[in-house]
């Protein structure tokens, strides 16, 4: 198999978060005020945010904004899973790590098509960002995304430097984006958007389930990698690439570069019969490296690996190497992903457990509201002191397993 290109994956050691900085303890489930997550993310300087409290944090239709970088949010330190509801998280900084939390925005009591458009977690004009082992469901916009201004600067190098770049999304669950819900456009069940000119974006070893499309969408001029993921039961599309000409008016089209490898694309009860594993639309050119993926219909028959949509005829430079296709290895990786993805895989909450069970059983569907699957979680508050010498602070791995 060809080596993964350097432009597709952040170099090891480039995303360090708050390593070497001070420890800040979250001691309340109230979203604001002393001891809160808001106070912790507003702090300056390198810092590792740990939790001495577990349970549900209701953001009250607000977005938790990270504007000061060099920070790690370590949800694995909590005494039980920390879940954010009725809001999302925006990353607008450099060198940010978020691990082992759940974000479940939901409809938040808002009317259908009312304009409540909430991402789960998104990076905007951010750099050196890692989101790993997180669970994101019930977003009313994208679940997990990287974006920014398309054309800030004098040339394509500056565009790519000024929008989000150097992004690692790994070991996550991105599922049940709400379809006919509160978004002003109506239907809007979306997984992950990698926006125009974002570079060095890697989406790896994650589960995408019950999202109508954008599992993942790479937009114009992006440079990224989609590797080792499990995509189950999309509606209209699995993964795709699309440069919209009307969004690039006055700017020359830039070719995208995308590598797709070792993914399992699995149709389900909601999947369009015309969907292919990776589809191309729009107007701009793409170099696509695609090999060693598994694509199956719900009945177990082979699904088309590539396809096109729309009226455009963009140039596709597709490079494959069938000699390296290994379905057994992809299936083995799929089993590992289903075992380890999402927040608190060692003690999954009922939402994640149900979604993973859907994938294994071939069940479930795209939904319009969190109320269709039990609604927002209600869990007791838990408390345990954080003991620093019980953790490897470089990796935020516990010295003994929980």
Task: Describe the structure in brief.
The protein has 402 residues and is mostly beta strands.
* Distance linking N and C termini: 37 Å
What is the CA-based Rg, rounded?
20 Å
Structural category is mainly beta
CATH topology: Pectate Lyase C-like
Strand order of the largest sheet: 1-2-5-8-11-14-17-20-23-26-29
The figure for the number of domains is 1
- As residue ranges, the low-confidence spans are none
Largest sheet, if any? 11 strands, parallel
Number of separate helices? 4
What level of helicity do the residues show?
A: under 10%
Please identify, by name, the CATH architecture: 3 Solenoid
**Overall pLDDT score:** 96
Going by CATH, the homologous superfamily would be Single-stranded right-handed beta-helix, Pectin lyase-like
Overall CATH class? Mainly Beta
Shape: globular
What does this structure look like?
It contains 4 helices and 32 strands. The protein is mostly beta strands and 402 residues long. The protein has one domain: Single-stranded right-handed beta-helix, Pectin lyase-like (Pectate Lyase C-like). An 11-stranded parallel sheet has the order 1-2-5-8-11-14-17-20-23-26-29. Strands 27-24-21-18-15-12-9-6-3-30 form a 10-stranded mixed sheet, covered by helices on one side. β31 (391-392) and β32 form a beta hairpin. It is globular. 54% of the residues are buried. The model has no long low-confidence stretch (mean pLDDT 96).
